[in-house]
Specification:
The chain is of the alpha+beta class. It has 2 domains: 64 residues, no CATH class; 250 residues, Alpha-D-Glucose-1,6-Bisphosphate, Chain A, domain 4, CATH 3.30.530. 41% of the residues lie in helices and 25% in strands. It is built from 10 helices and 10 strands. The radius of gyration is 25 Å and the shape is globular. The N and C termini lie far apart (86 Å).
Length: 345
């Protein structure tokens, strides 16, 4: 009788051979009566693992292809990212693709896989007033306190609480944070991050990133349409929907334009976060604010909202409020935030 050594079989080619044979040819199982059930169970896991590896390889292959397409789209004078957005059946979505140079994939994956690290940079975004997270729950939680561009305390803002999940399998980083329900009857929030390590045409190593966002605005959608037709009628996105009578580009507007502006703001926040990691912790956030503001000024038509001094003043107070919120939660006390400053009109 053949000797079946489980300690070696679990890691060796012998087990794979027997598992494969008994999976395909069940009639062979009587040859291994003591291990028939075990082999059947573990062989199933083996095939699941193979299929999972194939799926991950497929994801990697698809992302490499999209990265190649992205590189080919980078003509002289083009934006350093590509955008796509849509508004269909009540769902607003936007996607951005970019190459982030001089960042190792291992560092990128390590940092963004930690839910708490997102609270180190998402508040650079004008409309994210504070951020919170929990690692003691499954899935982990990530909370965005969302509001107008002017100064707001966390309790004046609206909380978007999301489930946070991340995994890095075979050099593909996948992060998803989502919420079924959001403020003001909005729903189905879905943020997706996909990333791989790549080398560009000039030999520079970095990360190819895909950031997707979608949501259903709910009844707020009708209010938003009024807003975009009046107060925000001059606001535009990045995608070109056509040309004016004079031949100038005609950019998307409305909720599609807003979605595009938002994903680019998140992209710039991620980029600045990694650019400033080597700066002393006490100086890092202040430098991040400066760099994020500078980055948005490259796209003034789409992203300009206020002057630098106002932005820095608002964000400095909101950063302090985030610390106050975290300390209050840790001590189970009521937070006392910085007093309100003059709102933007």
């Amino acid at each position: 009788m053949l000797r079946f050594d489980l300690s070696h079989a679990l890691n060796g080619q012998f087990f794979k051979l027997i598992a494969t044979a008994t999976f395909i040819y069940p009639s062979l199982k009587p040859m291994f009566p003591r291990f028939s059930t075990l082999i059947g169970f573990i062989s199933l896991l083996f095939f699941i693992s193979v299929n999972s590896s194939s799926a991950n390889a497929s994801v990697m292959s698809e992302m490499q292809k999209r990265h190649k397409d992205f590189v080919q789209s980078q003509e002289a004078g083009a934006l350093p990212f590509t955008l796509d957005s849509s508004s269909k059946r009540g769902v607003i979505s936007a996607s951005v693709r970019a190459f982030l140079p001089d960042i190792s994939f291992s560092l990128f994956s390590k940092q963004l896989s930690q839910v708490g690290q997102w609270c180190e940079f998402v508040t650079l975004h004008l409309n994210i007033k504070s951020c919170s997270f929990r690692t003691d729950l499954i899935p982990q939680k990530l909370g965005f306190y969302v509001g107008v561009k002017g100064y707001l305390t966390p309790d004046q803002a609206s909380l978007l609480l999301m489930n946070f999940e991340s995994e890095t399998v075979e050099d593909v980083l996948r992060i998803n944070f989502s919420a079924k329900d959001g403020p003001y009857d909005s729903s189905n929030y879905d943020f997706r991050v996909r990333a791989i390590g790549v080398t560009n045409a000039s030999g520079k190593e970095g990360v190819y990133l895909e950031f997707d966002f979608s949501s259903v605005p709910g009844y707020v959608s009708s209010l938003a349409n009024v807003y975009f037709l009046t107060v925000a009628r001059k606001k535009v996105g990045f995608s070109i929907a056509g040309k004016t009578w004079s031949g100038a580009p005609k950019y998307v507007r409305g909720q599609r334009g807003a979605a595009e502006r938002n994903v680019v703001r998140y992209l710039l926040a991620i980029k600045v976060y990694f650019e400033t990691l080597d700066i002393l912790e006490g100086q890092r956030y202040e430098e991040s604010l400066q760099r994020w503001f500078d980055a948005t000024q490259e796209y003034k038509k789409q992203l300009y909202e206020m002057d630098r001094e106002t932005y820095l003043s608002i964000k400095d107070r909101e950063r302090q409020n985030q610390f106050i919120l975290m300390e209050a939660r840790a001590s189970n006390t009521k937070p006392i935030y910085h007093p309100e400053i003059q709102k933007l009109r």
